[in-house]
Specification:
Distance between the termini: 28 Å
Helix content: 25-40%
Number of helices: 20
Shape: globular
Bound molecules: 6-O-phosphono-alpha-D-glucopyranose
Structural class: alpha/beta
Radius of gyration: 25 Å
């Protein structure tokens, strides 16, 4: 995810900007840039690629001109959402009399763009950020007051943002405002700074000011002034970081995996903002608008499990046949591919060797390829005919959590979009389905973090972490959740687990059930709940210990013979992803209880770039 930094008050802020940007690298990014004030005005140097590329560009500039120095500057690492990673789309963006860096997503950028264009604004990039810069510039032209302009523009903007701004009229001051995106301010050694991440300021100070939602601020040397939207000055108490740099990168969470699970609601909002217009799905793809025979999904690990989730909805809503393939098998099985088929590659990293090989196989057979990727500019994103980006932000823990949730959410929208394009559902019902999906899964996942639910998850983890074998059972789409839930558990806790379609249990695996063996039963479907309950009875009568993960509606409607229950406050239709979050949290808790590091499980790598 993007990173913001700003320094003022130093003789030369440029090295500080570059060091701070390097400390934000771990968040993942595809472009970087800085802007700083000089005697000749604001100078911007930015580029797609890594900070090394930015440093080289700065060196070239120094060789051609003079040494770079400026007492006030802002910097940015970009993770592309609107517009590909390119020099022009990189931040900072300059519009008329201000220069700006931005984290977050401007949801109503299309509307704002239209009204700004009518007022004579022109745009160079494809970014939503440039639109925000123009909106602030418009408000500045009306108010001649940077703080008022920021507040007025914030009222105009829908979405999340943290802005760092330098106005030409105040070249030695940094202005900022935030809503829903992180940003802190700090002062030390005669210098003031802003940063999206405390890590970036730790080399200078451990003291910082948390910036309240919708508060604007100005930094003049080492003095920082905060204002609410009525222009009243705010007295913000300074806080002190008590963590190490490594802790700070984790934002205070003991592990990245936990941080990433807690980031799921935010990641979902970013994904919805980029894949919906109003309440309708809007997936930008020519391939999806054309005739499609069969969709062949190829992916590995968790991404392949997201493919199973996709198959359920694409077939159900759009009535297009879908095959889900393990990429390492697909590439060698001489798949039957027809001219109208498409191959859909799903990958968080966009670099997984087998998924990439499947993509190349499809291309060699002249089959159209579409990818769903999290990392912009990655090999799979570059080589596929079309790419759709998930907006999960960087995922650092090896076991994938938020990337899976966001992949599934994106694929649900894709299924709805396909159904709409093929006339399988009306716009009216698509709108209804879309808005209830967005509402239910965001609130459902947030409710998993309520104490009433986490204490149940903790109790389940206590039982499971003391066992060697666990089974997961479910029917229909729930059986796919079982597969991913089981993978999570074994990846990080090293407890052996197997996932079974509940109806298959009696055809073999039930022989392994004996006293105390934990069986996790997932039930979200009212239509199959009774069948699940009879399966649970069979398990219980052989001594199995049943932990049910269910929607609240199922728990209320049916008498389930469980030993423990984790009931999720979410309508059954959309309880799948919240249940997945609960299963991720349970796997995490098991690993921690066993004294294992969930972020770095043995023998596993985040991105498997070898075959
Ligand atoms: C590795 C990771 C998994 C991931 C899989 C696919 O095995 O450990 O967490 O699901 O690769 O990765 P991708 O980046 O293609 O989604």
């Amino acid at each position: 995810m993007c990173g913001i930094i700003g320094f003022t008050g130093h003789k030369n802020c440029v090295p500080h900007l570059l060091d701070a940007l390097s400390s934000l690298e771990y968040r993942g990014y595809d472009s970087a840039g800085i802007a700083y004030s000089t005697d000749e005005g604001i100078r911007i140097i930015k580029t797609s690629g890594k900070i090394e590329a930015l440093k080289n560009k700065i060196k070239d500039y120094e060789t051609a001109h003079c040494n770079i120095s400026g007492d006030c500057g802002i910097g940015h690492t970009r993770w592309a959402t609107h517009g590909e990673p390119s020099d022009v789309n990189s931040h900072p963006h300059r519009v008329r009399d201000l220069t700006l860096v931005h984290n977050g997503i401007i949801e109503n950028y299309a509307e704002l763009k239209e009204s700004l264009a009518a007022k004579g604004y022109t745009f160079l990039s494809e970014t939503d950020t440039e639109i925000a810069a123009a909106q602030i510039s418009l408000r500045y032209s009306e108010t001649s007051d940077p703080i008022k302009a920021l507040h007025k523009a914030a009222e105009d903007i829908r979405g999340s943002f943290a802005f760092g701004v330098i106005f030409d009229d105040y070249p030695h001051k940094i202005y900022a405002i935030r809503r829903d995106s992180p940003l802190v301010a700090a002062a030390a050694d005669g210098c003031g700074m802003i940063a999206s991440d405390i890590t970036a300021i730790l080399p200078h100070t451990r003291k910082y000011f948390p910036i309240p939602e919708n508060a604007a601020l100005v930094i003049d040397g080492d003095e920082i002034f905060f204002f609410d939207r009525f222009g009243r000055e705010l007295d913000i108490p300074e806080e002190e970081v008590t963590w190490s740099t490594e802790d700070a990168r984790r934002g205070g969470y003991p592990h990245f995996m936990l941080k990433e699970i807690f980031e799921e609601p935010h990641a979902l909002r970013e994904t919805f903002a980029s894949k919906m217009v109003g309440n309708l799905p809007a997936i930008n793809s020519k391939i999806l608008s054309s005739r499609i025979g069969t969709i062949h999904i190829a992916a590995c690990g968790t991404a392949m499990h997201a493919g199973l989730f996709a198959k359920h909805y694409i077939e159900k809503l759009a009535k297009i046949p879908v095959t889900v393939n393990i990429a390492s098998e697909f590439r060698y099985c001489d798949p039957l591919l027809d001219g109208e088929d498409i191959v859909l590659l799903i990958s968080q990293s966009g670099e997984t060797a087998d998924t990439l090989a499947s993509l190349r196989l499809a291309k060699s057979r002249e089959i159209r390829t579409l990818s769903l990727v999290n990392v912009a500019g990655s090999a799979i994103a570059r080589e596929s005919d079309e790419v759709i980006y998930t907006c999960a932000g960087p995922e650092i823990a090896v076991a994938s959590t938020k990337a899976y949730i966001v992949q599934c959410a994106s694929l649900y929208l894709l299924a709805l979009d396909l159904a709409l394009k093929r006339g399988m559902i009306s716009a009216e019902s698509a709108e209804k389905m879309c808005s209830s999906f967005v509402r239910d899964i965001c609130s459902g996942i947030s409710s998993v973090f309520d104490y009433s639910v986490t204490e149940k998850i903790d109790k389940a983890a206590e039982y499971i972490s003391a066992r060697r074998h666990v089974f997961y059972i479910g029917r229909g789409i729930d059986s796919h959740l079982c597969t991913e839930g089981s993978l999570k558990l074994k990846e990080i806790s090293y407890i052996h687990s197997e996932a079974y379609a509940a109806g298959e249990m009696k055809h073999g695996t039930i022989s392994l059930i004996e006293d105390g063996v934990p069986v996790i039963a997932i039930i979200t479907e009212i239509s199959t709940a009774e069948k699940m309950i009879s399966g649970i009875r069979e398990v219980k009568s052989r001594g199995g210990y049943v932990i049910a993960f269910v929607s609240e509606e199922i728990a209320d409607k049916f008498e389930i013979p469980y030993d423990e229950v984790v009931s999720i406050p979410c309508p059954s239709t959309h309880a799948h992803l919240p249940i997945m979050t609960a299963l991720q949290l349970m796997a995490y808790k098991c690993a921690v209880k066993l004294g294992l590091d969930p972020d770095k499980p043995r023998n596993l790598a985040k991105s498997v770039t070898v075959e």
